Amino acid sequence: MMNYSETLNFIYNRMPLFQMVGSAAYKEGLDGMMAFDERLGHPHKSFRTIHVAGTNGKGSCSHTIASVLQSAGYKVGLFTSPHLKDFRERIRVNGKPVSQKFVIDFVEQHKDFFDVIYPSFFEVNVAMAFEYFKEQKVDVAVIEVGLGGRLDSTNIISPDLCVITNISIDHTNILGNTLGAIAKEKAGIIKKGIPVVIGEKHPETDSVFIGKAKEMEAEIIFAEEATTVNYEGTKSFRKVPYQHFSINGQKIKTPLLGIYQQKNMPTAWCAAKKLQSLGYHITDEQIEKGFKGVIKQTHLLGRWQKLQDKPCVICDTGHNIAGIEYICQQLRETPHKQLRMVYGMVSDKDIDHILPLLPKDAIYYFTQAASKRALPAEEMQEKAQRVAGLKGRCFSSVEEALNTAKAEADPDDLIYVGGSTYVVAEII
Predict the structure, then answer these.
(1) Average pLDDT value for residue range 283-311
(2) From CA 134, how far away is CA 132, in angstroms rounded?
(3) Is the bond preceding residue 311 a cis peptide, omega within 30 degrees?
(4) Average pLDDT, stretch 112-117?
(5) Of 93, 95, 110, which Cα lies nearest the Cα of 14?
(6) Residue 295 half-sphere exposure, CB side, CA atoms within 13 Å?
(7) Can you tell me the distance from the alpha carbon of 222 to that of 69, in angstroms, rounded to the nearest whole number?
(8) Which of these, 91, 295, 302, 370, is most buried using a 10 Å CB contact count?
C-alpha cells in the first residue's frame, strides 16, 4: 500500500490538479461525478449541505458560515479549494483536516475505478470529501464550488441554502468573458425551491440571477438590499485586531482584515440569518461567536494575513482583477514608509490588465512559485516594465525574494506578498 506522499503523487500524476496545470485539468460535465457518486452510494445524502459559489469571497464566506454552525453546536464538514500547504486542508470537520489514513485508504479502494471513469482530480477530491463527511457523521457540510457552478463537480448536492458571493472576470477561457456569461454559470447552482443569497448587486448580473431564481421558484435575497451595514473600523482586543461592523443593528467583529470583507461579511450574515429561518438552531449570540472565531475554528489562512511586524509583512491570495483592486486600495490606506512588493503570477491570468492596477511607487521583487503554471520571473519583469512601467529585480524563488525584501526594508516599510495562491502558500 502507498504511503501518504506516494498517494498524493499518484493522484497528482494520474489526474493533474487545476492548481498545477490550469484549464488542461478542467473536465466539463457531471457524468463522471455522478458515476463516482453512484459507486459510493450517494454519501452526500446522509448530511445537510450549504452550497457556496462566487468569483471572490467564497472562501471567506464558506469558512465564516462553517464557524457560525460550529458555534451553534453542529458537527460541520467544510470542503474548500485550493489548498495552501497540504491537500488535507480541503476537507475538514470542525476545523480538523481529514486524516492521512483516510486519504490513503480512499485512493487505494477506488484507484481501479479511475480506469473506468477517468475522473478529474477535482472529482476524486469531491467524492473523497462526501465519503469522509458521511463516515464522520457530520450534521451539515459547507461545500464551496471549485470553478463556475453549473458544471462543477459539487453541483450534485441538494442543499438547504445556496450562496453566490459576487461575480467578476476570471477563468474567461472556461466560464465566458462577460459578467453575464459568468453569472449564468454561477447561477447554475440555484435549485428548485431552495433559497439563494446573492452577495453583490450588479446591473450586468442581477437579471441573470433573478431570472434563474424565478425559473427554479427559489427565494432570492440580495445581501446589499437586505442589510444596513455600518463599518466601524479595525480595533484591537487583547492585541488581536478585528474589523467591526453593525449589520442590521447586530454588532459583528471578524479577524479577517481585508477591506473586501466589508462585502463578504454581510453576505455571510444574511446566510446565517436565513439558516435561522430555515430551522437551524442558531442564536444571534452564536452568529457573533462564529464571526469572531472564524480563524480559530476553521484555520482559514492567506486573507490579508500579517506575518510579522517591523517591517510589516502582509500576504493575500487575491489574484484576479476585482481582488487586486481591493488589495491596492488597502495598500494605499495602510501606513508605510516604502512599499515593497514580492510578486508572482500564474501564466493563464489576465496579466496585461492586472499589472496596470499595481502601485507605481513600490519596489518590486518579481518571483515565481514552484508550479508549472507560474509565469517565469524574467517574463513577469519584462511585462511589468512594458505594460505598466513597473521596475524591479527577478528572483528564482519566493523565499529568496522575500528574504531580500526584508533585508533591504526599514522597520516602517510595508512588504506585500501575493499575485497568486502559490506564492502565498510558499511563505505561510
Answers:
(1) 96
(2) 5
(3) yes
(4) 89
(5) 110
(6) 14
(7) 21
(8) 91
